[in-house]
Amino acid sequence: MNLAAQLPVLPIIIPLIAAPLTILLPPRRLKGLLPYVFATLVSWIVFAASAALLHSVATAGPISYHMGDWAPPIGIEYRIDLANALVLTLVSGVAALAFPFSYASIRAEIDDRQLSMFYAMALIAMVGLLGVVITGDAFNVFVFVEISSLSTYALVALGAARDRRALTASFNYLVMGTIGATFFVIGLGLLYQATGTLNMADLKIQLAGESNRMVEAGFAFILVGMGLKAAMFPMHLWMPNAYAHAPSAVAVFLAATSTKVAVYVVIRFIYTVIGADFDFAGAAFNWLIAPLAVAGMMFASIVAIFQDDLKRMLAYSSVGQIGYMLLGVSFGTEQGLSASLVHLFNHGLMKGALFMAAACVVLRLGTQTCAGYAGLARRMPLTAAAFIIAALSLVGVPGTVGFISKWQLLAASFDSGRPWAAFLVVGASLLAVIYMGRVIELMTMREGAGGRTKEAPATMLIPLYILVAANVYFGLNTEMTVDLAERAAVALMGDAR
Amino acid sequence: MDFVTFALERYNYWIFITLMMMGLYIVIARGNLIKKMIGLNVFQTSVFIYYISIGKIDGGTAPIYLPDDLKARTAHAGDHAPSLAGKSEMGAGALRPDESLHDGFDLAGNDLASLTAPAERPDAAAIHAAPAGGANDILAAPALTIDGPGAGADLAHQAADILYSNPLPHVLILTAIVVGIATTAVGLALIVRIREAYGTIEEDELEAADDIAEFGHIPHKPGRAA
Amino acid sequence: MRDEHLILRVVIKLMFAPILLFALYVQFHGDYGAGGGFQAGVIFAVAFILHALVMGLEETRRVLPIGALRMMMVVGFLFYAGTGAATMLLGGNLLGYDAIAPHSTHHEGQHYGILLVEFGVGMAVASTMLMIFYHFAGREPEIRDEDW
């Protein structure tokens, strides 16, 4: 076997084979360490493969892998360029941290007997997300979306051991997610009917210069379907409850990856499949995506201010942050797109860190209400410090990744002649100062009930601090993210022409 | 009058849209979770029907090799290279947008003559020239050149007298059906758990129970407080 | 108690083996005609579900315990994922079945590959269907009669 040539499928096939094996590992022997260690090792291997892919794509250009030796457009193609290599690295990187992180948190939150199943489902959820990103075949996207969604519904429902509302949250997510995925399939059907192909690159060729009702309707269905999955305002209603009631470790992984992947699909379909110069896409930018992005930014941030539940607050903040990404996309310029991609990556880092800190608090204090965070700086100083750095990053303080993405977005909005967008971004950031500041104030200024508590175990603190360090590192050293995102944006725009 | 014919000829879309709207309405308007699942199933099924109908060609049979076909296959055993030329040969769906999109599913009479029509693939000009109605033989022709995996690209030319429906949408929707079954199973499992945890599967009662939980009161009987 | 539904019991006992046989026919004929792993798996599971409906779930669990089902799920899944991966080890791409029989002039490998994959699919589908049935049917009835 030629390892280099098979690299593009390794992130899919390794966890796919590992998942059923995980089921066989005994959940209760050795304190459930076997499935945990096995799944963690798999996630590290996948991360190594993704990082190797990113390196290879960054140096040698896009890779095309022909499934079953059938050449595209007939066969399924895995096509990796800079944009998906970047998202791939984010997803597998967060997974490689979330898996080691999960052990203490999950054992406290779900029934021991479910551990093996939990890790198997988590691996499958990861496969689904990676597959969505990696594939170059439009229908394959749907299959992988559903693979990840189905396991995600089950993972969210596992939170029922702690709070029964996880069940209703999961059911709502299932209904909304299925409607979204089915809309996506309708869109694909229309595009297929119009072109006779499902390969993304080939769709682009066939659709070049075409603009008729059928393609427009197909695009609209795809946008709405993926908008639902991405929790794009106003289709975000499933998300706050799902994130708030899911087991904490699940929320970490989902918050950092799943909606970003859906945003990536939106970007991919707009640029690689439809083409941004497509009149209809241009109209969608100005009259649909941009207003909804702005409304989402403002509305979700305001709602976040009034949340009592910290995880719900973070989830609403995510809806707002999705707004930033879509705003960047809606500029229709290389800079806007690159700002979007940068923010997509950076937001994964900060939300991952915030949810990890929240998970530490749930483990030790058993609370996720904002009021429960009072005096946290004295009770759990390490966790509190990590939370504060990540919160500053979310607000966009210089020296963190949040600043880089906001800066890029501001520059892009001025360059594309949309100064109003820049003001709105700053305005939404001020709202973020309010909702994050409220929690930080509680943590540092107020006295909490009870004295100093035991810190979270090292298996949780180390991944948390790695993510926090990434928040700072990529905030100071922008070479990797910004440069790669700019090159990815140029390539995507090149696709679009 | 033209509009009526236009609308009637596309009756498969009407079925699809009606079912889809019914399904969505049930999902939104019904409070019972089981009924919501049923609505979701109706909604998904409408899409299955849509996919199946776009792959269907008038008079076309299921894309399974008939015995005559098998002979043709053995005669051409040597030539199996997966063909790339087939982009426009992939069936009725392959008609270019400018070539009268809506005729991918033509209903103007089941022209049996097309079953024995010559199988030469018409060039684009021929499709262009085809009138919107009664063009079954033209529409049917691209379907004859469908590639079976591992079979020769020219096999279909050999089996000239058999008209196949486009199998690709059917295969795609088979995947979606399996996904739909999995979704239904997960949904029903969730409903069972909800029934056990709350004692009800009516949405308004569930919401009432959650509201009470959120405001700090613990209901004496879960789910029945409303 | 044993005499209840005597006719049903006898009929099911007679039907059981033919249904399984039919499942295998659909499974392996799938290479040449209509059929395949999904359909065969469901038919296979139906035999056991019928058995459970008439003989009681406990009886069926003795025939096919839940541990065995779990094993079948895993093995079935590994069969079809593994066939794809095995072609990688043999030097082809993922799912490149030609690598199974590289010297064949008429793509023998495609046949072997799809046969193995469909076998795995059948096994996984049958065991998953039964698993779902066991779990739904085997839950303690917590709903009181007057609630219905």
Notable characteristics:
heterotrimer, A: 497 residues, mainly alpha, two-stranded antiparallel sheet, 20 helices, 77% helix, globular, B: 226 residues, Helix Hairpins, 0% strand, elongated, disordered C terminus
Quick rundown:
The complex is a heterotrimer of chains A (497), B (226) and C (148). Chain B has 226 residues and is an all-alpha fold.
Walkthrough of the structure:
The complex is a heterotrimer of chains A (497), B (226) and C (148). Chain A has 497 residues and is mainly α. Chain A is 77% helix and 2% strand. A two-stranded antiparallel sheet of chain A has the order 1-2. Chain A starts with a helix and ends with a helix. Chain B folds into two domains: 1-56 and 166-226, Orthogonal Bundle (Helix Hairpins); 70-165, no CATH class. The longest helix of chain B has 32 residues, at 167-198. Chain C has 148 residues and is mostly helical. Chain C has five helices and no strands. Chains in contact: A-B, A-C, B-C. Chain B binds chain C through residues 62, 64, 77-78, 80, 149-150, 174, 178, 185, 188-189, 192, 195-196, and chain C through 33-34, 38, 105-107, 110, 132, 135-136, 139, 142-143.
Helix content of chain C: over 70%
List the secondary-structure elements of chain B in sequence, H or E: HHHHHHHHH
Largest interface: A-B, 43 and 49 residues
Computed over alpha carbons, the radius of gyration of chain C is 19 Å
Helix tally of chain C equals 5
Shape of chain C: elongated
